[in-house]
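FYI - complex with pyridoxal-5'-phosphate, inputs then prediction.
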Amino acid sequence: MNTSGSAPTKPDTVPTEPEHVFDWLDTEADKRAAAGLVRRLRPRGSDAGELDLAGNDYLGLARDKRVAGAAAAAALRWGAGATGSRLVTGSTELHAELEHELARFCGAQAALVFSSGFAANLGAVTALTGAEAAIVTDRYIHASLIEGCRLSRADVAVVAHCDPAAVAHALATRRKRRALVVTDSVFSVDGDLAPLGELAATCREHGVALLVDDAHGLGVLGDGGRGAVHEAGLAGAPNVVTTVTLSKSLGAQGGAVLGPRRVIRHLVDTARSFIFDTALAPASAAAALAALGVLKAEPELPGRVCAAAGELSARLGAAGLSVTAPAAAVVSVSAPSPDEAVGWAARCAEHGVRVGCFRPPSVPDGVSRLRLTARADLTEADLDRAVSVITDTAPPAAR
Ligand SMILES: Cc1ncc(COP(=O)(O)O)c(C=O)c1O
């Protein structure tokens, strides 16, 4: 408020005409174009006839009739939307059943469903920390966890990738007593696996909590797809909290936090991305429940995803490309530059193979890549086609 009585002075950099107020966006867009970082939406048809190596539908369940049919039936029974936030009218019996089944499947005491994995991560990180806490994170965690750290007001130490000794050092030198160590299980860009056992042991030693984002582990790793946390023997551990998305292996939409009952109770009372957000649509809850049912009935699906990812990686590597060894479904192929990555992905699409193209700022290390995702329903013919298109269209500098 201006209390001096004099007219406020205008900053001289602000344009006077209203039509100029967003001129700076064009300047920013020009800079992104010069750096090869323009992003384009490419709406797909319902049956594009492409070989999809870009989506996260690892088990091929998004279009499975049992899953899509459950979503359709739930929409007709419960309505197209949830009608309100979870604490008002948005919690249906479907949400409660999904939470019960998710917790049971993954071996956690309890679960809480959010409208997305992003919201689950924001809610878990902020509600479990705050200004009185310290956070120690791997430097390659997912953007949703990074946003949670930023919103948390905690002291945040970002440490080297997959480095339990660096985590231990940050914990030993922290200034706040309460602390949360945050990591992805399978890292979304390169598809490598965090040393969860060592991280959990470090957390136990220091008496702090571990939060693992198992978005890419659920449905792919662990006994019958129970996830990387389960595989590491940490399911039900009293100091471990897991977040998952329902939008990858489960082919649906939404997210969840799994952990000790008192953690879930705390989130219901305090997680702002839970409280002030319309609940997950009943159709998505029903789809995720049906997908869990398929996973339980067909426990061989996760193994097929990993086998396909391994084969893709081995064959592309043998063709001279720089490719990661996948821990789960994600295979990453280095590209020489952002522009070359975009051109390469476009040439793959022209040949009917859709691949992901990751460039800064989506990649933490500044290296542009094609990101490929394997699926349980890929055939040998699909893999042959994928390998030949990706290698035939590769820029010379990719080898
Ligand atoms: C590691 C990781 N965490 C969280 C999310 C966010 O999940 P959702 O897409 O359900 O918001 C994603 C997905 O994009 C992810 O890859």
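Residues 301-318 form the longest helix (18 residues). The chain has two domains: 65-297, 300-398.
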